[in-house]
User: Which sequence fits this backbone?
């Protein structure tokens, strides 16, 4: 495999990883109606009040000043880039900004909340929750935050280290702060936006890769007092609820409960006021291979990879639908869910739609959980189809990598990851930022047992090459692409598909201007005709953007806002073609309007000067092998190897001074505040010396060009 393959493998390896509905009309096929309830519909007076805009999280705006005829003059209204940065590491915002009464509210890395004048971009206040830098080590995909909830006088943010905080909307001062984690020393993290659900606010968490037990928790909106908790998988017992008693029947009695089981609900939730239901998307299993969560046999393992409808009053399940029973492929069902009322075989049906990682687009009746449709929206090889009688995927031979390595589509990045999709009631289409990547999966037995605070997936996955075939069968090669896909949920097939974007794209916004907006990682904001898919504008911003654009109207003028910056999973490796290789990467909020100005591009990307290689380190085979093994186990997932461009410091260009400080940094956590926690719980000074020796030796070899490209990925 070439360096480029490793690079791509590394990047996609781990998953490319408010919500009150005012009334039924917000999920109707007509543009959302204005609110009558205490919690407004998200788009009142051109505002954007809820994470997914409407109660059904459709991310469809009725604003139409910017439309197919006027979009030509879209330009910059203002830019804001004064983000809180720790150390020298620039990270990626992933939030959807909210706009209320002329103020834009959004989060950046480290869960910092920003409030700006939505006309000028002037900063009104910022709130830094000072999150614990050590938590960065147990994040799947860096310190990111997908946004806020807003109600009455309060703005709500959840932090990487597990707190849910209500802030005063005017001043940014803390009103209440509550701990959402059951244990402080667990390895959970939070990256998602909290959701309002009646008189509670609900938040989940992440950490399945680290080996944790997932749960979502509801708190009183006014006081922050605990109201209920829904565990997504069983634990050592006793069972907390009847839902856990049911789930336990789908797990082996021999399950090592202290390994967590996974099932973290780290992103999508959507609330329906009419039925007081909060729908929660549940994540993958931990470890990944289902047969390693038991003794060789695969069980269904509820509620992994499921959509669960919870009573927002009690936290008890009304129904569940498991997209991937016995998940072994990191097929989370945490992806964006949309509520809509659509005509289905002559009948109006209230549905919930999701395009989870496993590659099937699901339409469920949201009153009962009945499966209405499950069609592949990207190439899928692990299952031939979903049986409409049982609702279960029918696995192919290709799905089983217990004995041999397999090339499987989709890979762990999924057919669709967290960047949200959008449903336009005008076109009846769902616009999905898809990923068409396959991965070679194998089990990982590196001799290291379960290690709290480290990756415990027990599987290895390397992104497939376009020419790869499944070594165990003759499956055709699968392309490496991504698209904006316009999916017809009723017909169960695509209407149009954008030209391929090899690097992937960000979240989507659709509007009544017959437009679809979405960024691509080569540094463009792309604008399509919602009906036909014609690419109308390609606005060069020069920055990678994963976050979805949003829109608002003020004083009769419509704006489009987009948070940009290469971060999250994309921080690990900047792929060829990425905007982060052409321009310096930093966090930016870009706001556009008709007749706006030119978009300022960041300064050109500067390669760092080469530092001398530290001398005097051991060179014996045994030490070098130990160093490489430990590096691969604990470090490569952030720092990469061999000058692969990344958002993390390149240790293959470490200065002799940094090498001197290696133990201070790597064992004692000297840079913990900036997201580089110490590893003294897992590593010894013997290990760190071996890693320094290995890195120095490998640098010499790279310099001499002696060693061909590394044949092994990780
Ligand atoms: C979760 C991601 C992550 C992991 C895993 C990680 N690091 Fe880091 N590391 C960072 C970040 C972020 C920084 C930069 C902090 C800053 O901006 O000052 C850093 C900085 C460093 C530095 C200082 C580099 C310099 O030039 O300033 C060294 C040395 C280092 N890490 C070594 C390691 C080693 C060795 C391992 C494995 C045991 C490791 N790191 C694992 C995120 C990580």
Assistant:
């Amino acid at each position: 495999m070439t360096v480029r393959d490793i690079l791509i493998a590394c990047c996609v390896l781990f998953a490319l990883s408010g919500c009150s509905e005012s009334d039924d009309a917000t999920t109707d096929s007509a543009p959302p109606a204005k609110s009558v309830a205490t919690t407004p519909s998200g788009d009142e007076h051109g505002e954007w009040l809820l994470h997914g805009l409407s109660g059904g999280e459709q991310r469809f705006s009725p604003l139409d000043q910017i439309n197919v005829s006027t979009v030509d003059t879209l330009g910059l209204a203002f830019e804001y880039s004064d983000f809180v940065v720790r150390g020298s590491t620039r990270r990626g915002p992933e939030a959807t900004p909210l706009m209320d009464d002329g103020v834009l509210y959004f989060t950046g890395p480290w869960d910092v909340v920003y409030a700006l004048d939505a006309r000028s971009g002037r900063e009104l206040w910022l709130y830094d929750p000072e999150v614990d830098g050590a938590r960065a080590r147990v994040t799947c995909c860096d310190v990111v935050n997908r946004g806020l909830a807003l109600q009455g006088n309060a703005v709500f943010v959840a932090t990487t280290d597990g707190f849910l905080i209500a802030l005063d909307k005017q001043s940014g001062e803390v009103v209440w702060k509550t701990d959402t984690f059951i244990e402080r020393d667990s390895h959970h993290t939070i990256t998602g936006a909290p959701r309002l659900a009646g008189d509670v606010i609900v938040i989940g968490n992440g950490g399945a890769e680290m080996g944790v037990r997932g749960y979502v928790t509801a708190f009183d909106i006014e006081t922050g007092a605990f109201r209920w908790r829904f565990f997504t998988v069983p634990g050592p017992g006793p069972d907390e609820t009847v839902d856990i008693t049911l789930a336990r029947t789908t797990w082996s009695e021999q399950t090592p409960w202290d390994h967590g089981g996974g099932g973290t609900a780290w992103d999508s939730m959507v609330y329906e006021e009419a039925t007081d239901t909060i729908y929660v998307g549940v994540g993958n299993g931990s470890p990944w291979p289902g047969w390693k969560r038991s003794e060789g046999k695969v069980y269904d393992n509820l509620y992994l990879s499921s959509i669960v409808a919870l009573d927002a009053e009690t936290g008890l399940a009304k129904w569940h639908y498991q997209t991937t029973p016995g998940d072994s492929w990191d097929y989370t069902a945490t992806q964006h869910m949309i509520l809509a009322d659509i005509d289905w075989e002559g009948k109006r049906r209230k549905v919930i739609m999701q395009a989870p990682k496993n590659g099937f687009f699901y339409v469920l009746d949201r009153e009962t959980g009945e499966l209405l449709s499950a069609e592949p929206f990207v190439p899928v090889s692990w299952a031939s189809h979903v049986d409409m009688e049982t609702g279960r995927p029918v696995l192919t031979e290709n799905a089983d990598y217990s004995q041999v390595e397999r090339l499987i589509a989709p890979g762990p990045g999924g057919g669709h990851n967290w960047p949200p999709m959008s449903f336009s009631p005008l076109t009846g289409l769902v616009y999905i930022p898809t990923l068409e990547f396959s991965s070679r999966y194998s089990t990982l037995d590196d001799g290291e047992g379960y290690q709290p605070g480290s990756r415990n997936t027990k599987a290895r996955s390397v992104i497939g090459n376009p020419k790869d075939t499944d070594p165990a069968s003759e499956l055709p090669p699968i392309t490496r692409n991504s698209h904006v896909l316009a999916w017809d949920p009723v017909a169960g097939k695509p209407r149009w598909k954008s030209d391929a974007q090899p690097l992937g794209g960000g979240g989507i916004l659709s509007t009544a201007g017959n437009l679809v907006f979405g960024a691509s990682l080569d540094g463009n904001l792309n604008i399509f005709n919602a009906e036909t898919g014609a690419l109308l504008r390609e606005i060069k911003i020069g920055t990678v953007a994963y976050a979805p654009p949003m829109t608002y109207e003020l004083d009769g003028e419509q704006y489009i806002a987009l948070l940009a910056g290469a971060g999250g999973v994309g921080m690990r490796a900047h792929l060829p073609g990425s905007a982060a290789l052409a321009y310096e990467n930093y966090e930016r909020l870009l706001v556009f309007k008709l007749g706006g100005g030119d978009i300022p591009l960041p300064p050109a990307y500067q390669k760092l000067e080469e530092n001398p290689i530290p001398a005097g380190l051991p060179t014996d085979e045994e030490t070098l092998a130990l160093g490489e093994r430990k590096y691969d186990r604990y470090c490569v997932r952030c720092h990469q190897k061999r000058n692969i461009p990344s958002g993390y410091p390149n240790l293959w260009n470490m200065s002799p001074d940094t090498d001197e400080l290696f133990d201070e940094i790597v064992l004692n956590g000297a840079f913990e505040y900036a997201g580089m926690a110490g590893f003294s719980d897992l590593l010894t000074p013997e290990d760190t010396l071996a890693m320094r020796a290995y890195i120095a030796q490998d640098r010499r070899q790279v310099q001499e060009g002696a060693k061909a490209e590394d044949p092994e990925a990780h």
